[in-house]
Amino acid sequence: MLPITLPINICCDTCQNYISKGTDVNFRKEEVIGETYMGAQIFRFHFKCTRCSAAIAIKPHPKKSDYVVESGATRDPEFEPSDDDEEQEQEQDTESDHEFMLDLIDIQEEQDLLQFALMTYNKWNNLVRDDQENP
Ligand SMILES: [Zn+2]
Q1: 5: pLDDT confidence band, cut at 50, 70 and 90?
Q2: N vs C: which end of the chain shows fewer Cβ within 10 Å?
Q3: How many angstroms separate the alpha carbon of residue 43 from the centre of ligand 1?
Q4: pTM above 0.70, yes or no
């Protein structure tokens, strides 16, 4: 058993105990048979509820750069205390989590477009300047 800092907020299915992100738990690592990402083996993490010792298992979701609860508990992204404004932000965060990689791709494309637009603008600007200098 090794210590791990819990990366997500979860709620124990057995005793409804909230175990918040950052809680230290002792875990046991297990290969997820047949599941790899970019050639790397994915491991399932087994640990026990801090209150009732029920078995809980989570595993990483590398495509989303996130973790999923496999058994024994329920993911609770809204556990973090917040006022109304922050709740709205959290909803947006959840949506963006799902499209984490898509967003990265979009950002890359946006930067390319920006670069292209800048080049075009500079070219156009130079042309205008040339016209003014040589009427
Ligand atoms: Zn429990």
Answers
A1: confident
A2: C
A3: 22
A4: no
